[in-house]
Amino acid sequence: MAERDLNRAPIIAVTGPSRGAFGPRFLVACAIRWYGGKPLQLRPGDPWQQHRYDGVVITGGHDIDPVLYTAEPEVVPKYDPERDALEAAIIDDALAHRLPLLGICRGAQLLNARRGGNLYQELRSRRHKTSHRRTVLPLKTLDIVPNSRLADLLGSERAQINSLHNQAINQLGQQLQVSGRDLDGIIQAIEDPDHPFLLGVQWHPEFLLLIRRQRRLFQALIVAASKRV
């Protein structure tokens, strides 16, 4: 068994598309560095198997292809199959090796799909108390499940979050539990209480880094990854 390198910063793989998404990826990297981690940016086509990392952040973006949860498209498709393949492989690898993982927006959805769950492909018909407006501002109310890991991290049973998604988790994947919903009951957070750190959030905490409780999501990821260094 190799000795731990206590002087090495935990390396966190940050996934994303081949082009664009500079802002979210930059902010995620800032959050990782804030708590002493080292971001490793991975894009489709990168030889990700050749890299060593101690934790993973799957960032937001386009909808995932419904073929990944054995469903037919219900909306006008805007998929990224190369990104789906990369992130599905990295999620599977993280699950197999019990690496700490934070899924953001589509990252939470893909995590759920890799555990056998599925998605609502449209939400307009399911929103009655919440707005359809997409915004990076924390204007949506999150109800947090008491005694969940998310409740411990955010320190309350209610918080304000942003909303940029047009799809959401429907049926849960295996071993996952709901840890947060919006006022319409739409799932906003999932977790695996038996995993060292496995959390998926439907909102974008990287846009809310000035809010301390939102930074705790990244801090907890780094703490868990540090135990693997």
TrEMBL record:
PANTHER family in alphabetical order: GLUTAMINE AMIDOTRANSFERASE PB2B2.05-RELATED
Protein's name in the database: Gamma-glutamyl-gamma-aminobutyrate hydrolase family protein
GO cellular component: cytosol
Keyword DNA damage: no
Pfam families noted in UniProt: Peptidase_C26
InterPro entries linked: Class_I_gatase-like, Peptidase_C26, PuuD-like
Keyword NAD on entry: no
Keywords: Hydrolase
GO molecular function ontology, one term from the record: gamma-glutamyl-gamma-aminobutyrate hydrolase activity
Source species of the chain: Halopseudomonas bauzanensis
An annotated GO BP: polyamine catabolic process
CDD domains per record: GATase1_2 (cd01745)
